[in-house]
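Repro:
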Amino acid sequence: MKNNIELGAFVLLIVGTLGLLVNEFIFDWGPPAALTFAVLNVVGWKSATNNPPIRRRKYCESTQRT
């Protein structure tokens, strides 16, 4: 599940960045396209940076049986 979220975040970053570059240098789609790709970039960036790593429980020595 976590890998799918990370993959989706990077796909959004790539699509947003490429869209902004294509809009700027190849086509002139205008401000709505630029805003759309910028939003995709922001959403992808936030998704990529707000996923804390999964924390595993540390083994508690006080629960060991002797």
